[in-house]
Amino acid sequence: MRVAILYNLPAGDRPDEADTLVQVRAVRQALFAMDHMPIGVAFSLDLDDARGTLAAMRPNCVFNLVEDVGGSSRLAHLAPALLEHMGMPFTGCGSESMLLSTSKLACKRVLTAAGIPTPPWSEGLPEETSFVSGRYILKSVYEHASLGLDETSVVQASSPADLAKPLARRRERFGGRWFAEGFVDGREFNIAVIDGPNGPEVLPHAEIVFRGFSKERLRIVGYRAKWDEDSFEYENTQRRFDFPDKDAQILARLSQSALACWRAFGLTGYARVDFRVAEDGTPWIIDVNANPCLSPDAGFAAAASRAGMDFTALVGRVLEIGAANTRNGRPPQSSTGCASA
């Protein structure tokens, strides 16, 4: 099968940006191992260029690894939107799901409308009338990879005014739009979901364990925990898949919420839902990732491995699902070859 690997060129030299190329190399190697013909196609704001390249290439399927466009995750939905417009089958979620989940504020509104628990939030605006006092964590609305999350990210607030200055400082330092989310001081879980022949399947539950964290140190998966290999946080935030019997009810609720989220957003292909679980056992969704990282050492691949899929098998399954998906309303190009190759 001829497969176009669609990806964005890193906008800078941060490790989270360079990780895109790690994914491209790993996926290309896996596709070669399955006797496919992968060809990398860089995606940018020049949509005509991407359209021309893809039209000339005529791939059987496009493996979409685009995480940001023009240096912003806000525009990641442009890649699936173009592919839908061209009638090309592709992996992962469609443009609408990507658009709704990329904005954390839009994401929270979808969750709230669907009755799925998500922490309260604020933009620090005086007209907010339903503000809930408590601790809040400052987050970028559009950027992912824990950008800007550190020990200064959690603040106490009794009104929106208490958040205005901290949010302004974040905008000045990192750029873009920021908001504050109610901080759930509890356990953190990543739930990977992948399409299957009978619908979405929840992969083994993963919990982030904060080892050796003092009471004074925030238990969050911040930027250092993800990307700074020399940091305490990176060394001591570890993933586990084994749980005692007493966690059975919590794990069941996590699965139910992740699948409810899948339906609410119209997710397809594969996705990851991140939770914080409060002391009373309530799972609160803090992020929906419609295009999660597929690096071999990332959480999604780890969950797949735990389910018995090595990385090559995972890439093959994602490709098979994408090749058969007719979400764009047009018949996939060379659909017979796609499904059987």
The level of helicity is 25-40%
Uncertain residue segments: 328-341
Question: What is the residue-mean pLDDT, rounded to a whole number?
Answer: 90
Q: Please tell me what the overall shape is.
A: globular
Q: Could you characterize what this model shows?
A:
With 341 residues, this protein is α+β, with helices and mostly antiparallel strands. It folds into three domains: 2-92 and 325-340, Rossmann fold (3-Layer(aba) Sandwich), CATH 3.40.50; 120-182, no CATH class; 185-305, D-amino Acid Aminotransferase, Chain A, domain 1 (2-Layer Sandwich). Helix content is 37%, strand content 22%. The chain has helices at residues 15-33, 47-57, 78-86, 95-102, 104-113, 161-174, 223-227, 232-236, 248-265, 299-306, 311-324, 335-340; strands at 2-8, 37-43, 61-64, 121-122, 134-140, 154-157, 178-182, 187-196, 199-202, 206-210, 237-240, 270-277, 283-289. α1 (15-33) crosses α11. The longest helix has 19 residues, at 15-33. The chain is globular and about 55 Å long. It starts with a strand and ends with a helix. Mean pLDDT is 90; it is low at 328-341. Keywords: ATP-binding, Ligase, Nucleotide-binding. This is ATP-grasp enzyme, D-alanine-D-alanine ligase.
